[in-house]
UniProtKB/TrEMBL annotation:
Group of enzyme by EC: hydrolase
Organism for this UniProt entry: Candidatus Beckwithbacteria bacterium RIFCSPHIGHO2_12_FULL_47_17
InterPro entries for this protein: Pept_tRNA_hydro, Pept_tRNA_hydro_CS, Pept_tRNA_hydro_sf
Database matches in SUPFAM superfamilies: Peptidyl-tRNA hydrolase-like (SSF53178)
NCBIfam families the record matches: pth
Family: Belongs to the PTH family.
Entry GO MF terms: peptidyl-tRNA hydrolase activity; tRNA binding
Listed CDD domains: PTH
The EC number(s) this enzyme carries: 3.1.1.29
Pfam families: Pept_tRNA_hydro
UniProt KW keywords: Hydrolase, RNA-binding, tRNA-binding
Protein name according to UniProt: Peptidyl-tRNA hydrolase
Amino acid sequence: MKLIVGLGNPGGKYKNTRHNAGFLVVDELEKLNLPNMVLFKPQKFMNRSGAEVKKWLKKWKGRTLPDLYVVHDDLDIPLGKFKIQFGKGPKVHNGLSSIYEQLGTKDFWHIRIGIDGDRDGKSGEDFVLENWRPEEREVINLTIINIINFIKTI
């Protein structure tokens, strides 16, 4: 059994922002009803998602962290690319920092969705909270398909 956690911010205001890339993947996975997977979107703001993940893992007594996959946006990776890595995430990500703090480790799978693109001089914090531009959304939709194809194999 795998726990797939998609990171994002709850509420309509954030639904179409780059920071909610993890939510988008989980939304698509929900449509597939894949066996041996539990899907979870924390309903606290990004910087408090660690406590929610910790609660879920407590329900999973006897499971190991390699059963945990956290799907998240990543400014260190170009738009349209993704990486799957164990124990390695971006330099800065408040959602992951919260999870690391709550779990006391980085030893789980990171599915890192590249969102870096033309920031127009904006800070990373401002950029991730903006809505996708239409041309970016087309690219990210294809990226999500590729991520889902990987997830089907785990």
